[in-house]
Amino acid sequence: MSNQAFVLILSGLIGILSGIAAVILKEAVHAIQKFLTEDFYTEYANFLYILYPLIGIGVAYFAGKYLLKDVGGHGIPDVLFNISKNSALIPRVKMYSRVITSALTVGFGGSVGLEAPMVVTGSAIGSNVGLLMHLNAKKRALLIGCGAAGAISAIFGAPIGAVIFAVEVILLEVSSASFIPLLIASVMGSLTSMILMGKESIFKFNLTDSFSASHMPYYFLLGIGCGLVSLYFSRMVRKTERAMEDLNDQWMRLLYGGAFLGFIVFFFPPIYGEGYETLNLLIEGKSAQILEKSPFFSSFENPLLIIGFLIMIILLKPIASAITLGAGGSGGIFAPSLYVGGILGFVFAYTKNMVDFHIELPLAHFTLVAMCGVMAGVQHSPLSAIFLIAEITGGYELFIPLMFVSAISFTTTTYFQKDSLYKLQLRDQGKSLPETKDQELLDTITLSHVIERDLLPIHHEARLLDLINLVKVSKRNIFPVVDDQKRLLGIITLDDIRDIMFDPEKQKSLLVKQLMHSPPEVLSITENMQTAMEKFERSGAWNLPVLEEERYIGFVSKSRIFNAYRKRLLRQKHD
Fold this sequence. Notes:
Elements: H1 3-37, H2 42-68, H3 76-85, H4 97-107, H5 115-132, H6 137-156, H7 159-171, H8 179-197, H9 216-245, H10 250-267, H11 276-283, H12 303-326, H13 334-355, H14 363-379, H15 382-392, H16 399-416, H17 421-428, H18 437-442, H19 447-450, E1 458-459, H20 464-473, E2 478-482, E3 488-493, H21 494-497, H22 504-509, H23 512-515, E4 523-524, H24 529-539, E5 543-548, E6 551-557, H25 558-574
Parallel strand pairs: 1-2, 4-5
Antiparallel strand pairs: 2-3, 5-6
Helix pairs in contact: 1-4, 1-5, 1-6, 1-8, 2-4, 2-10, 3-17, 4-5, 5-6, 6-7, 6-8, 7-8, 7-15, 9-12, 9-13, 9-14, 9-16, 10-12, 11-13, 12-13, 13-14, 14-15, 14-16, 15-16
């Protein structure tokens, strides 16, 4: 069997396994929520909402830490880092750990989504299947993308959007041949979900209004609003996470975070869990029903109260999501970004219709389009957002406003914030991803692999005559000057002594320390190749010394780096 055919078979298998995992997680969450919230009095339910998130996060944390050895938190940033820096290797435990911890977190009311845990699970399945079959890092990365595509496709029933998500967010750069395994995995994930669960969708609606070009000015304003809300979402998530990290004790994070989240859910029940049920009510025009579970607002049907209530949810949802993760829960911000976007779009259209100016706006259209806008702004994935919502709506009726709002939101967000929330979270952890393919390839080369150790050192108290004797046996024209502890004091080049090396008097009188000079730059053995290349460019040098705690190790030359770069480029092309 050819290598390509083998990868295609593996991609289909990974799609099926990811689809099964997605179904298990969704069914587990629904079963837990049904068990906890069914058949009790509404007036008492809210008091239980205070306790449920704390219990769920606590059980998920202890299960992850002591049983599974995989504590929750963000998933997609870690997947990106493993692809870039860890040869596309993801720990085996993640093939099932996030299914368990996320089911407990979200089932008990943690305000996060299931999409990120499913992407982690699918990616871990892809990585470990690739490792089992002895595939190289590049093909393992492709199978990670297949796992992510299969998981997203199974959750939303959107195979095209899932493939684009895998390319735009997970893999970042793939060849045209790589699309085929992604397509197969995505289709198999969707089919698996359909076979096991039927054609039931997360969103239940039937669009009756048609798109009108007269709505475009309002979509433009909505796009700007989505961009600004995306910016708020990203910054509030990071600020809240940093505040949680300031609580050094995990018990304090768990108790304070769980209690605070419980009180948020107590006052604003729609924040409980993923929140897709709330979006369904808004899309169907049943906005008054979102107040029914609130102990304070259930008896009111004032439109202004509904608007204020929803605005508070927009402001609190990113905080609640970050608290859930910071306290020890497992989940992601994929669903919260869709949730906040949907509420924003509804509030925008609902408020405009209340004013009764110009033309009436379709609430369902603006709710769905704003989901696309905020997802594009938060995750910096405009194409994924467009196709995901287009497939959810079952057609291309909203394709023009989806494209327009996604572009405006993405442009607005990137004007103030260059990177996606995923990359910013990695940076907060002291990690970084390569920005270009060139940088990614350079990062695979380490200084220790390109050090040249055949440059002969000389003591700083030696005479010029000793240096000339060294020149006779050396094949290089650079000589590092060191002390008794092998610390680098300077360098001497052949050009520095060419005019005086045959003068007998100077051979005996001049000391090496009188002739040496400082190198233009010095490299540390712990530096990455990107920093090393910046020093080469800044200094204009062709060779630079390498030190380990001030001790001389050797030299690195541009030609050696270029040779290593070329070999890796050819190997990558061959793979």
